[in-house]
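Re: duplicated header lines in exported structure tokens

Our pipeline writes sequence and tokens for each protein into one text file. With two proteins the header for the second block appears twice in some exports. Here is an export where it did not happen, for reference. First protein block:
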Amino acid sequence: AGESVDCRHWVQLLLAKSLRKCGLWEDAWQTLLAASREAVADHPEEARFQAAYGACLYQVLKLCILATEDATRQEGDGHLWLNRG
């Protein structure tokens, strides 16, 4: 805790967030997976890479929850439309 994330990882996290906000779920997912793999590939023992990995995992979980909520909302909206006749 309290470790900083380097600039490259911040950019990847912001890119994933922007993709998510545009509804590009798969692209956001791939960006986060690549960022998390990159964070542990070079120096897994360094705290700054552990912080980046943790940040990526947190964002992956948020992405999963938001994608599920979006899918549920869209499914619910479709049912309302069908029920209206």
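Second protein block, exported in the same file:
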Amino acid sequence: FCLHRYHWRRLVVDELHEALANRTLADALGLISAQHLWGLSGTLPAATAGDVATLAALFGVAIPIDATNAGRFLDCYVRRNATTAMETIPMDEHCHVVRP
């Protein structure tokens, strides 16, 4: 079964850092055609501008390999979970008792 033979509406890659660590797998992901591509990772490799450029290329974004553009890419495309961001989302809680 060859995933790159089809165009996908959305592709979600869990543990993206593991896929990027494996050059063969990272290259194969780059061949898959998808309208929307999401990568999930708790430990994204972004220590150098080169790491960020590799990540950007996977998502179809070409950036120069320098700290300024790497920072801009991370600011625009990488979401970080933080308690301050979660506090701004309104939440309503409703409890309903269900009896047989």
